[in-house]
Design goal:
There is one protein chain. By secondary structure, the chain is of the alpha/beta class. The strands form three sheets. The chain has a 27-stranded mixed beta sheet that branches. It contains two helices and 35 strands. The longest helix has 61 residues.
């Protein structure tokens, strides 16, 4: 009886131990199997993302000088990649996506043209038949292009004469400089957007959190629009359009990263906001409060843009459209203690009107790495690391207004980052390139 009991106990122990070992091995197998599947899916995901990236590069290379809107299908690395592109502001938004079995991948790039000869110069004075003067602490590194081959040494009360070596470059004469280099139809298209069948209508004012962005579709809001919250993730890569008949408000501290276009009456962006991939087109003013940071942001206004103590990382565009047919002659883009890596542009329906007081203002504490393009006035006190293309340089010292005087001007064309790309509309030629890196002064 004792032996049978011992045998039964031993057998039970062996069976239990065997069961535990088999369970452990099965558990290990399950973990390894699922990790293997996850690794395979990660590998496939990475491979598909690489195929998407390669498809975009191949497409850009094949259409280096000319592209048309739409999409195409490209077989690449056993994947069929759909490459599509559309204009977002003054950049092309290029997306590539592919799907295989249950896996999918999508990448989004910005694309534009490389620098053209006009912007190889440090300064282009487009107003015809002028002889500009120079005074003060002017320092220009790069060439000057204008309709004359001479700059006079001038004298302004309270400002010392410019040194003889104020220019490290040459003065190039060209009597056929374009006073309007930019294609107006592009900015008219931005402000003339009409909702189509993809938009749904929301009556009244709408308040959205940044987390709502991932599930949002095109919408037309009859009242004001408010967007706030903190959502730094970039989930949905589809570009969404919002039309707000009222005012756009982005409160203090908002963090947002979303491919988004907002068309509104006017806009206010609060303090310490961190915003990426946003385009705003306002018929009124756009005001940016201090200590905000932006990446790949485009701001368009038919009145003016006021930025205080902000940082705009490349590629960013600030543009004001002066419709002289409507008598809007006092538009201003004002940069106060601001760093802009990109383009600041003042575009007019008619260039050269003496009644037009619109201008770009860059104060002494601001820096622009990129281009300043004005079809009217530009008042520049800060540093320009790049190129200035302007109809009138404007300077005021009571009671005198000075036009096309180079007074305390600081431009260094050699400091422009080689990855800089021009906005659409400033170049008819030049290769298309993707924005392949982030840089900031």
């Amino acid at each position: 009886m004792s032996k049978n009991s011992d045998s039964g106990y031993i057998l039970s122990s062996v069976l239990l131990t065997g069961f535990l070992i088999i369970s452990l091995l099965f558990g290990v197998f399950v973990v390894v199997f699922f990790n293997f599947k996850l690794d395979i899916r990660r590998y496939n995901k990475k491979r598909m993302e690489l195929a998407c990236w390669s498809a975009v590069q191949k497409h850009v290379a094949e259409h280096a000088k000319d592209i048309s809107s739409g999409s195409c299908l490209m077989p690449l690395d056993s994947c069929n990649v759909k490459v599509s592109y559309e204009m977002k502001g003054l950049f092309y938004l290029v997306s590539a996506e592919t799907k295989k079995y249950q896996d999918s991948a999508k990448v989004v790039f910005l694309m534009n043209r490389s620098i053209t000869p006009e912007f190889e110069n440090a300064l282009v004075l487009s107003r015809p038949n002028i002889t500009p003067s120079v005074a003060g602490e002017t320092r220009i590194t790069g060439d000057i292009l204008m309709s004359n081959n001479r700059i006079a040494r001038g004298s302004v009360y309270g400002i010392r004469n410019a040194p003889e070596n104020y220019l490290s470059g040459t003065i190039k004469k060209n009597t056929e400089i374009k006073v309007k280099l930019f294609r107006d139809t592009l900015v008219r298209r931005i402000f003339g957007m009409i909702p189509d069948s993809t938009f749904y209508r929301y009556e009244g004012s709408l308040s959205l959190s940044t987390k709502d962005m991932d599930t949002l579709h095109n919408v037309c809001v009859t009242g004001d629009l408010s967007i706030n919250g903190q959502s730094a993730g970039k989930g949905n890569l589809t570009n969404v359009r919002i039309i707000a008949r009222g005012k756009l408000v982005i409160p203090d501290g908002t963090i947002m990263n979303r491919e988004l276009e907002i068309h509104c009456d006017s806009a206010e962006i609060g303090r310490s906001a961190k915003i990426e991939n946003l385009m705003i087109a306002a018929t009124g003013n756009i005001k940016v409060a201090p200590d905000s940071r932006f990446q790949s942001v485009q701001l368009f206004s038919q009145r003016g843009i006021d930025c205080d103590r902000a940082v705009f990382n490349f590629p960013s565009v600030l543009c004001s459209w002066v419709d002289t047919l409507k008598g809007s002659y006092r538009n201003q883009i004002r940069l106060t203690n601001t760093v802009l890596n990109g383009s600041v542009m003042l575009v007019c329906s008619v260039t050269g009107l003496s009644s037009n007081q619109s201008k770009i203002i860059v104060d002494e504490k601001s820096t622009v790495q990129g281009i300043v393009y004005s079809e009217n006035n530009a008042e520049i006190h800060g540093r320009i690391l790049g190129s200035v293309y302007v109809f009138n340089l404007w300077y005021y010292q009571q009671p005198t207004e000075y036009q096309n005087w180079l007074i305390n001007l600081s431009i260094d064309r050699t400091k422009l980052h080689p990855a800089f790309l021009l906005p659409v509309g400033l170049a008819e030629e030049g290769k298309y390139k993707t924005v392949g890196m982030t840089w900031v002064y």
